[in-house]
Amino acid sequence: xxxxxxxxxxxxxxxxxxxxxxxxxxxxxxxxxxxxxxxxxxxxxxxxxxxxxxxxxxxxxxxxxxxxxxxxxxxxxxxxxxxxxxxxxxxxxxxxxxxxxxxxxxxxxxxxxxxx
Length: 116
What we know:
0% helix; mainly beta
């Protein structure tokens, strides 16, 4: 059974960089694709980007200039960095696996609030 767990600060100040890590167990991040998705309060899910089996990365055009996704294969983790955050980046952030054109395994999500 694949399991994903997000970790990182729950509070980030405006203009700083949001950093989250997703630790994967029960499957290798060198297979399939691994993604970050967020849900702002009262809004729908927003795809941020991901990193696939061979290390290629993909980003949402609207967030690309501020986003970096990387991986640590030795620890089976992948990470998100979102720079120059504003209160509009406040959301529940999820990591998930993509397979067969679906997101089939999800982390429980972590609340990140951007506030001074």
